[in-house]
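[job 0412] stage=complex_fold ligand=magnesium ion status=START
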Amino acid sequence: SSSIGGSPTIQGPDQYELLTKIGDGAFSNVFKARDKTTGQLVAIKVAQKRAQIGNKKKQVKCTHVLKEVQIMRGLHHPNIVQLVHFTESKDDYYLVLDLCEGGELFHHIVRLTWFSEDLARHVFCQVAAGVRYLHEECGVVHRDIKPENILIESLPDQSEFGNVKLADFGLSKVIPGTETLTPCGTMGYTAPEVVTDQQYSKSVDMWALGCVLYTMLCGYPPFHGDHMIAKVVHGNYSFTSPWWDPISASAKDLIVHLLCVDPKQRFE
Ligand code: ADP
Ligand code: MG
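[job 0412] stage=complex_fold status=DONE, emitting structure tokens
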């Protein structure tokens, strides 16, 4: 129920009218929805509170959703999908989010086959700004950056994309011990491996940014097909001719510095 003593003090899920399903995952469904009082359109990620794993009778609690919410509550940036409200019913959690009408970057790559360098730069710079905010201002690593989790705010007009936002904090983590690195913390007692771990945890997102940039420019991912794990481990990808021939040296150079196997050498 959304009211206590007749006044709508708590916005429950009844507050929203679910319209169409716009995304689904293993434990969640995302709907386009309307706030019944304001008429505002939103996206709502509905996630089960408990789930059955395999054919076991026992249900497990889906606490990862609460972690996702906890992290999202601290995030406010034009290139990060905003959590506007969090509520629950008996069986589900409801993450009310800013609606990105343009949908997934993934669909636009499929639709356009590949992006011009101008369009790829436009998207990349915004995603990178979101990642910089996460890493430098929030101490958060996303850990699942991919074209399915990059959303376009409004429906693109031809190939003109507007605002681009990073979504899905389901796998993200607070970088352990970041509070000890603040100037007022006890930095003097922090062990080198703690500092090193913190630096490396961010580098997974930088690798993923390299994969996204590569995919936008040619329409296929850098690592695919047989023996994919071995290819990733060795950083075995190529700028295949003829697709990569017209692409600028500076774009390739950026990819080379992001898809760098040694995280110490990788761009930050
Ligand atoms: P999952 O953890 O299941 O991958 P996501 O948060 O990635 O959940 O959401 C799944 C899909 O739902 C996304 O890939 C996207 O297509 C759609 N979606 C999620 N959030 C929004 C949003 N704010 N606006 C529009 N579509 C969204
Ligand atoms: Mg996702």
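The chain has a mean pLDDT of 90.
[job 0412] exit 0
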